[in-house]
Specification:
Order of helices and strands: HEHEHEHEHEEHEHEHEHEEHEEHH
Number of strands: 13
Strand order of the largest sheet: 1-3-2-4-5-6-12
Shape: globular
Number of helices: 12
Radius of gyration: 20 Å
């Protein structure tokens, strides 16, 4: 699978003319490509009923390589392509693009024959709604939004607040200073859910714990999810204020949070993906206590599987702790060695799944 980076604005030659035309029309850059030959070759491998070219995946702000949200989507895309032996194309957002650009991108994916077509992130809601109306025979998916209601759309949403509650419990138990921090990428309702769960979880351990809170920007287009330097500055300020565990829900900006935490030798808690296992963050992994997981990749895989098998998922699909698609990663041996922290997180998970604890969605 060839790649075209966002920074390099070069195009690659003839074998993927259809995809290149799609990228030009959609005002984005292809990250992974499936050629016409690839799509044609793979179609039969998925079963005689599946006639599409493969998966069309459109990334959110920050694009592939954010070690978090978008990379989680890519993991599901890759798994589905490999398992079902189908083609696919994954596309980066353009710099400063409009809603019209997103609409055009999704429509071109559908026109080129990709099915399902998935918008990664709530910013794609208007585009999914418009494209789904124009291409009723294509199944569309949107992650982190449940406002698009159509017979050919799957709204793939999560109880992020539940995983964040576990992160709050872990942070409060691990903090020696009784002082923790939260860094949100953008000041919007979706990220408020992460804050709400984190704060509630931390206060369930210590009602008097001090909690720093910082949002990087007011709007997504201002770079709150794509600016590691802003994340680093926010973490630096919280550490200077006394926090010794910092949880981020900031996409690519969260890399800066983790880097600063590692440099200052305090704990960081990642989000969406298991950031302890991310190669780009390997230098700092000893300081990644854990990650609040959101199995975006699993949702991408589920939707693709349903389309390939001829029974597409539609409507709202909400994933939670009970389903296993939300959770808390325990990959760091230093975390698993902290028996009191592990026990507290496990107990909190049981309480949420059983219904004994109801997690807030608003701070």
């Amino acid at each position: 699978m060839r790649r075209i980076s966002r920074k390099s604005r070069t195009t690659h030659i003839a074998a993927t003319l259809a995809v290149l035309a799609l990228a030009a029309a959609g005002c984005g850059k292809t990250s992974g490509e499936a050629s016409q030959d690839d799509g044609g070759k793979d179609k039969g491998s998925a079963g005689s009923s599946y006639k599409a070219k493969g998966i069309g995946l459109a990334y959110d702000i920050g694009g592939q390589g954010d070690q978090s949200f978008n990379d989680a989507a890519y993991a599901g895309y890759s798994k589905a392509r490999k398992e079902f032996k189908i083609g696919g194309v994954d596309m980066e957002p353009g710099d400063g693009e409009s809603s019209a650009d997103k609409v055009q991108r999704l429509e071109q994916l559908a026109k080129q024959g990709y099915d399902p077509v998935i918008g990664v992130g709530f910013v794609y809601a208007p585009a999914v709604e418009a494209a789904a109306k124009k291409y009723p025979g294509t199944t569309f998916g949107i992650i982190d939004d449940n406002t698009v209601k159509a017979d050919n759309v799957a709204d793939l949403v999560f109880h992020e607040e539940q995983g964040s509650y576990l992160a709050g419990v872990a942070a409060a138990k691990a903090s020696k200073a009784k002082h923790v921090g939260f860094v949100g990428g953008v000041d919007i309702p979706l990220i408020h859910k992460f804050e709400a769960g984190f704060v509630q979880g931390a206060k369930s351990v210590d009602p008097k714990i001090k909690i720093e809170k910082r949002y990087l920007t007011e709007k997504p287009e201002e770079g709150g999810f794509s600016s590691p330097d802003r994340g680093q500055n926010a973490a630096s300020g919280q550490i200077e204020a006394g926090a010794d565990v910092i949880y981020h829900a900031a996409g690519l900006s969260g890399q800066g949070v983790i880097q600063e935490a590692g440099a200052q030798k305090v704990w960081a808690i990642g989000v969406d993906s298991d950031q302890y296992r991310q190669k780009a963050l390997a230098k700092y992994k000893d300081y990644i206590l854990g990650s609040a997981l959101k199995d975006v990749g699993g949702a991408v895989y589920d939707l693709t599987k349903s389309v390939v098998e001829g029974d597409p998922i539609t409507g709202e699909q909400r994933y939670d702790l009970k389903s296993g698609r939300v959770g808390f990663a325990d990959s760091n041996p230093k975390y698993t060695a902290m028996k009191d922290v592990v026990a507290a997180v496990d107990k909190a998970k049981e309480d949420i799944v059983s219904g004994r604890v109801k997690v807030k969605t608003v701070p």
